[in-house]
Amino acid sequence: MRPQQRYKKGVNMNTKSYYISNIHCSHCVNTIETELCDLNGVHEVSVNLETKQVDITYELPATEEIIIKTLREIGYPPQE
Ligand SMILES: [Cu+2]
């Protein structure tokens, strides 16, 4: 059985996970969350300090390209 979709609204809702090796403290977590949540179309950002994993739920006008570009600009280049 397929898992239920978390969001009914937004047919093009996507969730992507990235590994960001230089996340090292709560300041990094806050910076990433704040900057990504500011992007139009980003619905949810979850940063795990232990695993250095960032989960991002988004839809248009946010795109993977914009998210990656933003992360690079703020000094946290992601590895998928
Ligand atoms: Cu830090």
Structural class: alpha+beta
Q: How far is the first residue's CA from the last residue's CA?
A: 27 Å
- Assign a percent range to the helix content: 25-40%
Radius of gyration: 13 Å
Shape: globular
Mean pLDDT: 90
Describe the protein in words.
This protein has one domain (14-73): Alpha-Beta Plaits (2-Layer Sandwich), CATH 3.30.70.100. A hairpin with a 4-residue loop joins β2 and β3 (53-58). The longest helix is centred in the middle third of the chain and has 12 residues, at 26-37. It is globular and about 35 Å long. The mean pLDDT is 90. A 3-stranded antiparallel β-sheet has the order 1-3-2, with helices on one face. The chain has helices at residues 26-37, 64-73, and strands at residues 14-19, 42-48, 53-58. With 80 residues, it is an alpha+beta fold. Residues 24-25, 27-28 line the site of copper (II) ion (CU). Residues 24-25, 27-28 line the site of copper (II) ion.
Give a short synopsis of this structure:
This protein is of the alpha+beta class. It has helices spanning 26-37, 64-73; strands at 14-19, 42-48, 53-58.
Topology:
Elements: E1 14-19, H1 26-37, E2 42-48, E3 53-58, H2 64-73
Antiparallel strand pairs: 1-3, 2-3
The structure holds copper (II) ion (CU).
What labels would you give this structure?
single chain, 80 residues, alpha+beta, Alpha-Beta Plaits, three-stranded antiparallel β-sheet, 2 helices, 24% strand, globular, binds copper (II) ion
